[in-house]
Amino acid sequence: MNAIKRILGLVWMVLGPAGIIFGIIEAMRELSPNAAVPASQETYTFWIIILTIFVPIAAGMSLMGYYAWQGDYDHLDEERGVE
Amino acid sequence: MTSTPTAKPVDLTTEEKKTIRAVILASSVGTLIEWYDFYIFGALATIISTKFFPASNPTAAYLSVLATFAAGFIVRPFGALVFGRLGDLVGRKYTFLLTLIIMGGSTFAIGLVPSYAAIGAAAPLLVLLLRLLQGLALGGEYGGAATYVAEHSPAHQRGFYTSWIQTTATLGLFLALGVILFTRNSMGVASFGEWGWRIPFLVSAFLIGISIYIRLRMNESPLFRKIKAEGKVSANPLKDSFTKRANMKMVLLALFGATMGQGVVWYTGQFYALSFIEKTCSIEFVQARNIILIALAIATPAFVLFGWLSDKIGRKYIMLAGMLLAIVSYRPIYKAMYGLADLTQKQEITTQTSNVNSSEKVKAGTITTAVLSKAYTDGTTYKETTKTTQLIDAAATAPAPVVTKEVTLSTNGFWMMILLIVIQVLYVTMVYGPIAAFLVEIFPTRIRYSSMSLPYHIGNGIFGGLTPYIATRLTTSMGDPYAGLWWPIVIAFLCLVIGAVYLSNKIDPNVED
User: Fold this and answer.
1) pLDDT tens figures, B221-269
2) Considering only residues 70 to 129 of chain B, which have any Cβ-Cβ distance to chain A shorter than 8 Å?
């Protein structure tokens, strides 16, 4: 189980930046002057809100992945005294 | 990995039982009222958009309110930090008293703000500011109430006792919808739309007064008093919570392995469902709210059931089962909901179809109202109202016709819709019922308020609170009525995997650390 926790840690580490890149690409596509539907004020508001909020959260996911990869979640029960 | 919880039962004395009941009452009433305050804004979003935001484009006005609604959610994590820190420094009791006063004051003030027509741009700015204060207050409230109850509870009944706090979020919505419907029915639709919508906001002052009175009579949490007497209170709770790796890893795990999925399941079942039946299915205003009200009333006791059950079989499996059920069944449920209101699948009684036209002279010209009414063999009725404005000044551009569609379901359809909402609210009770006990148990007393509040409010406020906004946007941009469901499905799936792999199902009996 600990091996799975650590391997999945790498997935979470990658998922964070991947989410940020996906968000930026989507925002650029919708806000581009060549967009199929011209960007409105609401579109700008939406993407400003989404990127401002989700970039730090995605960074948090990468950090959790790093902790998992380092084995920080291997012995939670022992650390909590509930083994 | 064993799933056996480790809490050992110790019977409470009569005096202790009395105390815990008073603690639950004081905490729950206050939290219930805070949720009520918070929800009436969302529940009256359509009316508020016409009063406080320029109405030239109704969609833009509605989205502005949704954005404001979202702003109310987005500031919640900041409230969690501000009041969480305070709660770990000065105590739970005075902190959640303060949040109650801020919430009540802001709600009351929204009821007094003059409309956009009266004071122009200052109106939406004031409303936005008050909405942000509401979000801040709510961010500080929940962690305090949950911590306060949990720190009074015996280990083997922590899930059961904290589940009463969990009912408040749903009961707050219930109360908000109930007060709105009662006020609207009492004074009539026209007066309610004119000024009566302010009443639910003003009523808050009375409710908050009662709650403050109850809470003032309570004592500080025994565990907080103990660590304070021993000089073990954290000097810097935020630093201890979010810069120490041993605690930060638990904050991240609580967010990505529990509250993130719980947030989207909650807001899909209770808020996106209402938005879907009203906007996508075009269910009539009062019937849509009655459906939600009855479903909430039926399913709410399950919060306590699953809280109690989590003391017996552990928190993790109940929460993850709720997420799994939501992931696999959301699309079939929403397809069934859509089908209930889909008029193309019904047989029209053409002899009962009527088309009534009327016109009214106004300053700028004439407003023509065309009302098309249809009845169907299963008892469903349909009303389509089209308002067209013809201006006196032929050179001026007339506004686009406003079309309102209202489907009133048959009795069978009504109860089927309720059943489909009840199923979703049961998922909510599974993911939300045990979560307060779960969060309390993974953080130490000295930084518990700060540590548990942040993941809770990011999960609920951001992932959950933005669900109606993101789902509506997905639906609009993809042109598929079910596209909005991808947001809760994907987020809940991610949370399910993380929770299944990393969370423990064992209950920590000792929250005095």
Assistant:
1) 888 888 888 888 988 999 999 999 999 999 999 999 999 999 999 999 9
2) 70, 74
CB-CB contact of A69 with A13 (8 Å):
yes
- Could you give the CA distance from residue B473 to residue B469 in angstroms, rounded to a whole number? 6
Mutation choice for A interface testing from B259, B472, B501, B513 by most A CBs within 10 A = B501
Q: Is A82 on the interface with B (CB under 8 A)?
A: yes
For B457-473, the pLDDT digits (tens) are 999 989 998 898 888 88
Express each pLDDT in B388-428 by its tens digit.
888 888 777 777 888 999 999 999 999 999 999 999 999 99
Contacts of A44 (CB under 8 A, 6+ apart): A31
3-state DSSP assignment of residue B21:
helix
- The closest alpha carbon to B34, from B67, B5, B76, B70, belongs to B76
Output the CA torsion sign for B490, B496, B501, B504.
positive
Which residues in chain A have their CB less than 8 angstroms from residue B64's CB? Answer: 42
Label residue B493 by pLDDT band (50, 70, 90). very high
Residue B31 pLDDT exceeds 60: yes
Measured CA to CA, the distance from residue B289 to residue B266 in angstroms comes to 17
How confident is the model over B174-202, as a mean pLDDT? 92
Residues 6+ apart with CB under 8 A from A80: B442, B504, B506, B508
**Inter-chain contact A42–B60, Cβ cutoff 8 Å?**
yes
- Which residues 41-80 of A are in CB contact (within 8 Å) with B? 41-42, 45-46, 49-50, 53, 57, 60-61, 63-64, 67-68, 72-73, 76-77, 79-80
